[in-house]
Structure formats: C-alpha cells, structure tokens
Amino acid sequence: MSSDKFSSARAYPARRVARWDEETDVVIVGFGAAGASSAIEAAAAGAKVTLFEVGAGSGGASALSGGEIYLGGGGGTPIQIQNGFTDDTESLYTYLKMAGGPDADLAKVRLYADNSLAHYHWLVEQGVVYKGTHIPTKIIEPETDDTLIWCGSEEAWPFSEAARPAPRGHVIQWTGWGGGRKLMDVLEARVRKLGVDVRANTRVLCLVADEDGAVQGVAIRDNGAEKFIRARKGVILCTGGFCMNRDMMQRYAPNALVSNDPIGVVDDGSGIVMGQSVGGDAIHMDQFFTTCPWYPPESLVKGIMVNIHGQRFINEDCYHGRVSAYIAKQPRSKAYLLLDNDIFGRPMEFSRVDVAATGETWAEVESELGMTAGTLTATVEVFSREAAKGHDPLFRKAAKWLKPLTKGPFAALEMDMSTSFFSYFTLGGLNTLPTGEVLARDGKTVPGLYAAGRATAGLPRWGEGYSSGMSLADCTFFGRMAGKTAGAKLS
Amino acid sequence: MSSDKFSSARAYPARRVARWDEETDVVIVGFGAAGASSAIEAAAAGAKVTLFEVGAGSGGASALSGGEIYLGGGGGTPIQIQNGFTDDTESLYTYLKMAGGPDADLAKVRLYADNSLAHYHWLVEQGVVYKGTHIPTKIIEPETDDTLIWCGSEEAWPFSEAARPAPRGHVIQWTGWGGGRKLMDVLEARVRKLGVDVRANTRVLCLVADEDGAVQGVAIRDNGAEKFIRARKGVILCTGGFCMNRDMMQRYAPNALVSNDPIGVVDDGSGIVMGQSVGGDAIHMDQFFTTCPWYPPESLVKGIMVNIHGQRFINEDCYHGRVSAYIAKQPRSKAYLLLDNDIFGRPMEFSRVDVAATGETWAEVESELGMTAGTLTATVEVFSREAAKGHDPLFRKAAKWLKPLTKGPFAALEMDMSTSFFSYFTLGGLNTLPTGEVLARDGKTVPGLYAAGRATAGLPRWGEGYSSGMSLADCTFFGRMAGKTAGAKLS
C-alpha cells in the first residue's frame, strides 16, 4: 500500500483493512509524561498496552521541562507540611479555576483539586523522589536538588485575594535544571516494569475508524513498513501540542510566532489532527504559554515593567509567565523593566534581556528610550509615591515587593518578544472529559478515543493563567485517567 | 428514520442512503448575501441550484447590516471618482492585508483587490442602486440615502502610512440604517429570476459524504420529513458565523461573551461544524468583530480614550470597531472617553455610553473616576501639550483630530463592554481557497464542498482590522467565486 494513502487528517476506513497486522487492547501514541502515565494505569488495569513513540525514546517536551508538578490541597502534601505550609483543597480549586481563564474546565479542576494529594502519593509510589526542602525565593527552577518552590501567581493579585496561597511546585530530586528528564526516566522504568510494549522510532500515521467514527486502531510505519494495529479497548493520543508545526501555528496561534523559541521535540500537532479526523473538537487553539525568564535575581521583581509608551500593565510580582503573556500583548510585544541602583541586577544570560538605557534621573532614561517627556517619568513618580506608602493602587503588587525607585542611577532592561528569549508552547487541543474520553463537536464522546496532555485543552488552557508545573500535573494526572478509563473498558 | 440519526457534527455515510429523494447540481445552505451571490453565479453557470434556508426567507445577518460594501481599487469606482477620489489597487491590497492581521489570506486579498472594481459593476448589474453621493464626516452608517463613506481606519495610523487612503464604503440607496435588507431584496430578486429553487423553513441537518470524505449531498428536514438531497456538483455552505451559539462561543471565543449583544439571526455555526465533519479546517475561531458606536457626533473623535488606569491605548481616529476591539482588551474591558467643553457631545442613545464623571479640572475627573492622582492628569497633560504642537507622538492620531483638552468643564464617558452596546459577530470559520473550495487540515481540498461568508475565515479574520463593509464584500465576492466554481464543475 502506498504511503499517500495515509494522512493524520483523515481516518482510514476500517472496512478497508483487509487484515490487522497486530492486536492489542490499548494503543498509546507518544511517550512523554502523559503517554507514560496513561500506559502505567492502563497496564495496571490489566490491559495489554502498546505504546508508539516517533522519537528514539521516551521524553517529548516533558523531558525538556524542570520536572516540576503542581500539587497541593487536602491540607497539604507531606512536603508542604514539613516546610510549614498548609494547603486546602478549595484554595487549590479556586486558583486552578482562575488559572483556566474564561473557559476553565471546572470538571477537571474539581477532580484535580480533590485528588491532587493522592496524585502526589501515586508519583512517590512510581519512584519519584522528593528531597523535601523548600526554596523561599522567586526562581524559575532550583539550581540545586531542592523540592518545593513558589511556581505561580499564588501570592499575587488577583489570585492572592481569592485563594489562600501556598507553594505548590514539587520538583523531582535532581541537581540543576532539567529534572523533567529524570522524571521521564522514573516513569519509563515503571512503564517497562509493567510490561508495556514500547515501540520507539515508530510513527502513527492515522487513526482507523469505522463508518460511525468509532476508533478501531491505528496505521503505523514501522521500519519502513506500514501496518495496521487493532486497539480493542481504545487509542490514547498523548502526542503533545503543535508548537513545532509552523503551519498550524500560523493558522491557529499566529501571535506566538513573534517569538522564535518554541519548546518542544515533536509537538507537530498530529494527535490533535488525528482526533479531529474522527470528529474530535479542538478548542482554545489560539492560546499559548510563553515566558521570558526575567528573574532571578529576585530583586528585579521590585522593578516596574512599562510598555513602549511608558505605561505599566501588570503587578510585576506575578509569575514570570503571566508577566510575559502580558508583555506579548503590549504594543510591539515589548516592555522595559525599570530598576534603580538598590535593586539593579541582570537576568540570566540566556534570557537575552539587556540594558536599553541608563540615567542619573528617570527623565534621562525616558529620553534615552525615545519616549515622550512626561510619560515614563509620570509612571515612576506615581509608583514611587504610592510605594512609599506601602501600596500599589493601580496594579496591586504585594507590599513586600514595593519600593520607591528613587536611588539613582537608574536603568531600563529591554524585554522584546522578537529578540529576547520568549519560549512558548501551545495550550489548545482536543476537548476531553475528565475520564480522557475525547468529545466531539456535538458533545458526544468519540468511541474508542482518549487523549491527555498538550494534545488536549486541559487544566492549562489560558496563557495568562499558566503556572509552572501545571502542564506536567495535567499530563500525569489526566494521562492516568485516560489510561484507567481505556484500560478498564470492556473490549 | 429517526431524527437523532443526524447531527451536523457527523456526516451521514452515503452508502447508507437507500434512495436520494431529490437530485440537483448545487445545494446552497443559507440565504444571506453569501448564499444569494453563490446561487446567482452557480445558476448563471447553467447549474440547477437548490437553496435551503432555515428561516422564513432571505436575509440572515446580512439583512441586519447597513448594506455597505467595501469596494475600490483599479483607479477608483465610478462613485469614488465622481466624488473626487482615486483609489489604486495596491493601496486597497495593502489595506486589506493589514486588516487581515497576522495570518491575512494573501491569495484572497490579491484576488479581491484586483477584482473589486469589477465586483462593483457586477453589483450594479444585479440591480444594486447607488445614489452616488459622499458623506465626508465620520459616521457609522448614513441616516440618509447617500452612498460613499469612510468606513475603516484608512486615514488612521498605521494604515495611513502604508496605504493611500480612500473612502471605500459603498452603501446601497436606502434612507436610514438597515440597507442590508434592501440589498438582500435586490439579490433575492436575481436569485429568483435565475430560477433558483429556494426552500425556506428548511433545515439542512448534515452533509452526506462517501467513505473518502467526498461530499455527495445533504440530509434536510422539510415540513417534518427528513430527505436526502443529492448535489451532483457540490454543496456550498453559506450559513454564517456562530455568534448565536453560546456553547460554541464559550469553547472558541469566550472573550466576546463579556458582551450580550451578538448580531445574528441564525448564526449557530452549523455550517462550520458540518464542514469540519468532513475534515474541513476551521481557523481563527477566537477572532470576533465588536463595536460600540461611540461616535457620531464626530467631535467625540477629538477626545481621548483611557483605560481604568488613566492610560491611553490607541489613536482614537481609528474605525470605531478597531477602537472597540482595543477597549475589549483593556482591564475589565472598559474605557473612558475624555472630552472638554469644546467637543462635548453624547453618542447615540442605543450605545449605552453615559457620562461617568465631570469636573472643572482634570484632577476632579480623575478623582471622581476613583483613579490614582497623577495618572489620568498626566495622560491628558502630555496629550494636550503635544496636541498643541500638532502631533501625537504616542499613538499618532492624525493632526485634524488633535486638539488640546483644556477648555473646561471636562467630562468622561464610560464605555464598558459588559454594559454598553458592544455588538459582536465571529470572524473564524472554514479555511477556503479563493475559489470557495474548503481546505482540509492537510491542505487538500474536501471534494464537493465549498463555503463562503462568515462560515469561513475570509478577508475579515482579525478583530482589530475589521472595517465596515468588509464582511459583505467577502460574502458577495467569495460567494460568487464559490458559486462559479461549483456551478462550472463537471458532475
């Protein structure tokens, strides 16, 4: 059979499959954190599981991450508690609801908030080791092997007003950045121990579906040969987002393309397209996470951010990604971080955030940036006057980060989405039930089809609300849900 | 056969159609401007055309419009020329390209710019009467029966810098607002004269497609009976957008739901969903047009717009819809229009834009609005100082609209997307070729399927770029293209 018979955009008609080359219970597509977690639960449910990965091994975008998972609620995880924090389920629920934006998936938020603590224990049972220590300062990821970090906007307005803050970023023990690779190694070991049949270097070409759109299996390319694999219980798409597919980015999320720093490995959107080919509904496809790591050093958070017109636009103590999402929406997707001599510092080299102007007075900085007289200076004047009184009436930055910017010399760091490091990945994807079942556009489920991770619109689905660890929380937890549901299905 | 056999989200398998109840060449779904224009061209090409409309008669959202069409280029339409304007094709091309945003459809923009003048003549041939007169002031629609108006941001930065401005809004002769109904009457007369079989009160339930996704016809409900209609040459979806479908709005364009003023009649998205059911790609589903008619009186354009922080955010001489799109993105989707006594006026009653604060000084207005001292006042001070010199260095409002706001008393009008009249409709839809052929997600066309108007992502596909008359231009011109292509197809 010729290769152009297959397109991820078109399901292959089951009627035309003369013979299934192989049969299994559950087919999983993609070996990132979602695929691994699905595989573990499906296998634990007694299903025969076959996992196809187009790359050479496990990992995906999960292995590029910090290996941090957003966990809490239920009074607090053992690690929150041993570091003196408590965390209630309703605060976690409220935070995740706000983070989900104008179309938060309340069913998923509810289920996750209620079960996040149990999910912590599950991770530990799989072999994830947490050192148990806490880093109190604002950072991106630990450079050490510490565990618990503030990884969202919990202490920042408006979240702080609605939900009691707690640090919820749980980082796997691993020295330095990149704990995601370690996390994947742990999950992979479990996957293999449970006897999952892992096929690397194998591309799933398309779904195979019957005339009613029920998924029966997949067509794959295996060592150059095309084969049909029957999935008696179902197919779980864990293929990630589409940030590496420039054509899809252009059609669905063109605003992200101001940056040239996608974070992904495969992330070609093929799973989303396969899901759509059998009627699966893809939602919020315009949404993306982006961040420029503009802190540490933490002192920079005491600076203020202005756009090219010298206007502030956010409380700068929000999570770096939330601030970056706002920068992305400013004119020319650009901002300046204003610092006085007390708090001056430089972000990490790789952020490509450099000094754009300096001056003995703010008027000099304003002028050097080419701004109109009375713009930036008025902004700084109002901010410093109010900060001296301990508040920020415009953007409600928390008191601990407020400091009048009056100690010259002064500087402006430039953050430009087109030249600084603004990494991004996509948040839109297939609409699923908390069970992992893929929803069609009429609200019915697509028989035999499941999805998890960034192939779906999950807990994270709104760029302004993303927090570190939220995607891995979603991948692992709802990956498990999909694996359980499919694994337990009567075939 | 039972009704739940049919869902717009699922194509009905052609194999299961025991007998076609009727056969025609071209089926058109929807009798707005796109459907009417498609029908005219398909019939003119010699095809047997059957048009289904779920409502009682022609109209759709087109009949709710002003009946204004965005036309120009080629040296100028006769009406542009008789009013002393010329208009070159490249300026029209550039304007439409900019108006299309970060994923403008350059093939459609090119074709339309090159053929807009010919399209003017076609409209006149159909019986559209233009009085030929010009209204030079900034308005929404003529209250008279005049023709040519400025209906976009042509004279405003950044458009004015890139493309030579010309007024391009051509309004059908009709006294008062609502010329869209008159336009539909004219088009309907042509449709009927050409012998198109028009079936009102008839819902198209779903597409009928073969196993390869090629569209063969439709299933309809006609007087309670369900029937299969074969379309030998193809089906053209002209069903409009989805602004009246709250569930779709929530999943794809939740930001519009801040307002409660959709402009639509049916606009339930069923055509988009039907197109997707056979692999059609829906793009830019998050984009919507919104406008609050905050002028006339024209003097209001000399005011400045600030957000709740007292910050300006746009050159206020842009098209009202572009300004409104920016308001929608401000904190709390809210803005204030600042006026001094020289230019004070009230927008039309139905805009629900009222006075929020007044004062003898701007400091009083600032305080009455609950803004922090030194915010609004600094904005006004910078603006007035620069306006007195004849420029607007921040937002580049054109000199003719610049006036220092120094003549007290002063007022602020409140524009709030959740309480003022912010009408909206959707701009995302099926991805089509300029021929009207629907594109699948792999870039191939869907055999037998065409679409036009707001069921597609057309010339207008970016909220910030919309101009009045652009959707009717797209509906009529690309409706024609779809009708020509389908009508000429060998069946």
What labels describe this entry?
12 helices, Flavocytochrome C3, Chain A, domain 1, alpha/beta, nine-stranded mixed β-sheet, 22 strands, FAD/NAD(P)-binding domain, 491 residues, four-stranded mixed β-sheet, 27% helix, homodimer
Rg of chain A over CA atoms, rounded to whole Å, is: 24 Å
Q: Please outline the major beta sheet of chain A.
A: 9 strands, mixed
Task: Classify the secondary structure makeup of chain A into a structural class.
Answer: alpha/beta
Q: Which architecture name of the largest domain in chain A does CATH use?
A: 3-Layer(bba) Sandwich
Shape designation of chain A: elongated
Q: For this structure, what is the CATH homologous superfamily of the largest domain in chain A?
A: FAD/NAD(P)-binding domain
CATH class label of the largest domain in chain A:
Alpha Beta
Number of helices of chain A: 12
Unreliable spans of chain A are: none
Q: Please state the oligomeric state of the protein chains shown.
A: homodimer
User: Which bin fits the share of residues in helices of chain A?
Assistant: 25-40%
End-to-end CA span of chain A: 28 Å
Strand and helix layout:
Two copies of one chain form a homodimer.
Chain A: E1 12-13, E2 22-29, H1 33-44, E3 49-52, E4 68-70, H2 78-82, H3 89-99, H4 106-126, E5 134-135, E6 148-149, H5 159-162, E7 169-171, H6 179-193, E8 197-199, E9 202-209, E10 215-222, E11 225-237, H7 246-252, E12 261-262, H8 270-277, E13 282-283, E14 288-291, E15 304-306, H9 320-329, E16 334-339, E17 354-359, H10 362-368, H11 376-388, E18 410-416, E19 423-426, E20 429-430, E21 437-439, E22 445-451, H12 470-488
Parallel strand pairs in A: 1-9, 2-3, 2-11, 3-8, 5-6, 11-22, 12-19
Antiparallel strand pairs in A: 4-7, 6-7, 9-10, 10-11, 13-20, 14-19, 15-16, 16-18, 17-18, 21-22
Helix pairs in contact in A: 1-6, 1-12, 3-4
